[in-house]
Amino acid sequence: MGIIKKQGFYYTLISYIGVIIGSVNTLFLYVRILETYQIGEWNNLTDIGLLFTQLAQIGLPSIISRYFPRFRTENKNHEGILVWIFSVAVISFLITSILFLFLKTTLLVWYSKSPLLPKIILLVIPYSFFLFSNALLDILSRVIYKGLLFSLMNEVVVRIGTSLGLVLYFFKIITFYEFLIIYIGLTGCISLALGVQIWQSGEFKWVYEKTFFKNQTRPLLQFGLFSLLTSSTFILVQKLDKIFLTIYQGDSAQGVYSIFLYIIAVIRIPSVAIGRASNQLVSDFWENKNIIKVEEIYKKTSLVQMILGLFLFIGLSLNKDFLVFILHKPIFQSQFPVFYILGLAVLVDTTTGMNTFILNLTSHYRINTAILSISVLICCGVNWLLTPNFGAMGAAISLFITYLFFNLLTTLYLHYRFNLQPFSILHIKVVIIGLITFFLVHFIPNLQNPYLDLLVRGSMASCLFVGLIVRFRILTSLNDRLKDFAHSILHHIKS
Questions:
Q1: Are 70 and 287 in contact (CB under 8 A)?
Q2: Quick one: how far is CA 187 from the chain centroid?
Q3: What is the pLDDT of residue 330?
Q4: What is the pLDDT of residue 283?
Q5: Is residue 222 classed exposed, middle or buried when 0-12, 13-18 and 19+ CB atoms within 10 A define those classes?
Q6: Which residue from 371, 349, 351, 350 is spatially nearest to 417, judged by alpha carbons?
Q7: Nearest to residue 101, comparing CAs of 62, 52, 162, 65?
Q8: What's the pLDDT at 398?
Q9: Beta-carbon neighbour count of residue 328 at 10 Å?
Q10: How far apart are CA 478 and CA 469, in angstroms?
Q11: Residue-level pLDDT at 385
Q12: How far does Cα 290 stand from its chain's mean position?
């Protein structure tokens, strides 16, 4: 757990620095510099690019995460897996690019309510190329426990660059199209930085092993194709709400919805940081059949993610008036109930912990694909029923139902097959603490000054929530650290 704690701390620190920058971008720059339809078009570009990337990857990141521990060697050749990875990657990306060009006209028909898309759709190819490169180089960095650089570049550098790009657009130095090119270029800078890091690490040698290509290509690609289906359906589950919203309601409605998603993404930060620090360790434990350690990490990460996620969701929900004030446009006030549903959906997803990742490590990984495929069908069905008439609220409800169904089935299957489940009585206590905190602070009279209201509500909620967590010893490690800190203070006072 030492590696997780150390890297998890740095991941979380970088993530929250990124959140500060991202919050400035979202709350002050996006909504003031860009029109909601431009935000929607930007999301169309990134969403299509992400789906393109998932298809091109054919499960390579999952292959590396699962099988690299098996092929790792002391001489850094790793049985020639590096050459195999990049050979498959080049061929796959070329095939996917041709397929995208062939389907471009069909995409434009689907997105007929997005008038800017025909002008920017070809930008999907370079953007997807950099996303693809980033995914491969990131997972290669993580298997040698050097994953911090990607977080720094993605969470901090790209966001600062995006801020500067928006400022240039605001002063009419560049056009919106040129801003998108700058954004794509920033994504490419991540690939460059990760490539240099891997080369300097000396952990990989560029060695061609004919026997590896001959003996391992088929089993690896079989696993990769199932992982592709799993990851693609998982991305679809996350993106279908926005896709349906754009198709039925247009770019402006999707732009407002996306801003809420940007804000609510704060809840995911702890789980992303913990996952990046612990996934490879769990993979190694599973490969070595150390189920006890896997269960220990599964339970601890779920509890921590629930505590932090619920704390952040409560804080955001209690400060609705401040968020509406900052978001500036009246439409966010009328659409704010959508925010609550999105928050609950993300909270359900983060609380269930590492269920998907663990199931993918097992020989039953095909079950994960089946559950996700059914989830996609449910998501499509609920969106088809609700989004045309209820707009963003319908899309949010569909996301909540889909996350609840998917995570419930995945968690139950892990418990049934491997006797692994992340929950305990502590999770129920955390929910009760969260409800007490929300209702007590909610009834504080609204203050006239929005900044003062934020300060008072935020302080009250933090003291109450954290105080109850410590009082009921939900996290013993937190209590131990506070106890050590108190002893240290007393020691200094006495000396």
A1: yes
A2: 16
A3: 86
A4: 81
A5: exposed
A6: 371
A7: 52
A8: 95
A9: 12
A10: 9
A11: 95
A12: 27
Question: Which residue, chain included where needed, has tokens 């996303």?
Answer: 131
Report which of 47, 228, 53, 59 is spatially closest to residue 129, judged by C-alpha positions.
Answer: 53
> How far, in Å, CA of 285 to CA of 158, rounded?
33
Choose among 208, 100, 206, 191: nearest CA to 139: 191
User: In this structure, what token pair is assigned to residue 75?
Assistant: 């001489």
Alpha helices by DSSP H, listed for 58-155, are 60-71, 81-110, 117-120, 124-143, 148-152
In this predicted model, what pLDDT tens digit does every residue of 445-468 receive, in sequence order? 988 899 999 999 999 999 999 999
Neighbouring CB atoms inside 10 A of 110's CB total 13
420: region left, alpha or beta (phi > 0 left; psi from -120 to 50 alpha): beta
CA distance linking residue 330 with residue 307, whole number of Å: 32
CA angle in degrees (0–180, nearest 5) for 460-461-464: 80
Q: Token digits for 242? A: 């926005």
Three-point CA angle 410, 416, 420, nearest 5°: 75
CA-based nearest residue to 351, from 287, 404, 418: 404
CA distances from 74 to 69, 77, 205, 378 (A): 12, 8, 11, 47
Sign of CA dihedral 152, 157, 162, 163: positive
> DSSP string of 207-251?
---HHHHHHHHHHHHHHHHHHHHHHHHHHHHHHHHHHHHHHHH-H
Please give the Cα distance from 92 to 489 (Å, whole number). 59
Backbone angles phi, psi at 191, to 5 degrees: -60, -45
Cα gap 235→372, rounded to integer Å = 10
Distance, in Å, from the CA atom of 469 to the CA atom of 426, rounded to the nearest integer, reads 10
pLDDT higher than 50, residue 403: yes
> Does the pLDDT at position 27 exceed 50?
yes
Q: Which residue has the higher pLDDT, 495 or 104?
A: 104
Token pair belonging to 175: 């056009």
The pLDDT of 234-256, averaged and rounded, is: 88
Maximum Cα–Cα distance across the chain = 76
- Cα separations in angstroms, 14 against 19, 155, 159, 400: 9, 7, 12, 28
Segment 88-139, tens digit of pLDDT: 899 999 999 999 999 999 988 888 888 888 999 999 999 999 999 999 999 8
pLDDT of residue 480: 62
Tokens (6 digits) for 76: 């850094």
* Model pLDDT for residues 311-332, shown as the tens digit of each residue: 999 999 999 999 999 888 888 8
